[in-house]
Specification:
The chain is 40% helix and 18% strand. By secondary structure, the chain is α/β, with parallel strands linked by helices. A 7-stranded parallel beta sheet has the order 3-2-1-4-5-6-11, sandwiched between helices. It has a 3-stranded mixed beta sheet with strand order 12-9-14. Strands 7-10 form a two-stranded parallel ribbon. It is globular.
Length: 326
């Protein structure tokens, strides 16, 4: 049984990944400082509370466990916050990742799955966005991820560390069995914010900008179910463990939905009117982000199972109704 260290395993995507790894027969060790994650969402695996800033702790973790590969989800992810506080993002997303990479080298662990982002592309030159698209991030969050992708290329050349970077577009939805889901504090993602209106935890949803160059003026995003993301990670892990070379893959469904279209779909799923109001654009947001995931499908054999927007929202709605009762 191979052992996987999941850094950030108490977070939204990380906790779903822990479930998927355990179901696939892996032993899981979770490292999370709980700054944004929730220990109660870690339904399996061995939990260690700590931060990547603690180099001594990293040594202890790798000495105590025979780690076969690492999955790294422990990044700050709020675009607007990264514009306001770039130091916070570069220290955590870059410096702390370097601590992890160096600890891996010392422990002779040579396989990493890195949680990257569509934000590395910046304002798209064309859509859908394929792997060859120019990388020109327009906010510190995206730059921090692009820095790491370039660092990983250098670490492979110099030290032989193999990696797969998975560039998410918009992660959404929840475990289809309703066990865990999204619960950021504060919440910044569109679908859970909309559903908080439907559940009564929020009065209305703010539409951040209606003057984008899109068909209805609101920003367009490619929403991918969190369980489909986890399947891509499992495939990427097996890809590396089977001896394949480092690579980078875009992950999305290849179809974009505007903010207004997501709100309307949520109205259908929940039966709630979901009042909305227009507010200013969020700093650092491009108008359209839609993925071309052809390479992931060809090289990893990845095929998303939950591509319908209303299905994604329905799974998230099941989870939101549980949160609203707490």
């Amino acid at each position: 049984m191979k052992t996987i260290l999941v850094v950030g395993g108490a977070g939204y995507i990380g906790s779903h990944m822990v479930l998927a790894l355990s179901a696939a027969g892996f032993k899981v060790v979770i490292l999370d400082d709980l700054s944004t994650g929730h220990k109660k969402n870690c339904l399996s695996g061995e939990f260690i509370c700590g931060t990547l800033a603690d180099k001594n702790l990293l040594v202890k973790v790798f000495n105590a466990h025979r780690i076969d590969a690492v999955m790294h989800f422990a990044s700050f992810i709020q675009v607007g916050e990264s514009v306001q506080y770039p130091s916070k993002y570069y220290n955590n997303n870059v410096t702390n990742t370097l601590n992890l990479l160096d600890a891996m080298l010392d422990a002779k662990v040579s396989h990493l799955i890195f949680s990257s982002t569509a934000a590395i592309f910046g304002n798209p030159v064309y859509t859908p966005i394929d792997n060859q698209h120019p990388k020109a991030p327009i906010n510190p969050y995206g730059r921090s991820k692009w820095f790491i992708e370039q660092i990983l290329a250098d670490y492979e050349q110099a030290y032989g560390l193999k990696s797969v970077s998975l560039r998410y577009f918009n992660a959404a939805g929840a475990d289809f069995e309703g066990r865990i889901g999204e619960c950021h504090q504060p919440e910044t993602h569109l679908i859970p914010l909309i559903l908080q209106v439907a559940s009564g935890r929020r009065d209305k949803i703010k539409v951040m900008g209606n003057d984008y160059p899109t068909h209805d003026g609101t920003a367009i995003r490619d929403y991918i179910h969190v369980s489909d993301l986890c399947q891509a990670h499992l495939l990427a892990l097996n890809y590396l463990l089977s001896g394949r070379s480092s690579n980078q893959f875009n992950l999305g469904n290849g179809k974009g939905f505007s903010v207004n279209e997501v709100i309307e779909a949520a109205r259908k799923v929940t039966g709630h009117p979901i009042p909305s109001e227009i507010s200013a654009r969020r700093a650092g947001d491009p108008a359209v982000l839609v993925a071309d995931a052809t390479l992931a499908k060809r090289e990893l054999g990845w095929q998303p199972q939950f591509q319908d927007l209303e299905t994604i929202i329905a799974h998230a709605w099941t989870w939101e109704q549980k949160l609203a009762k707490l």
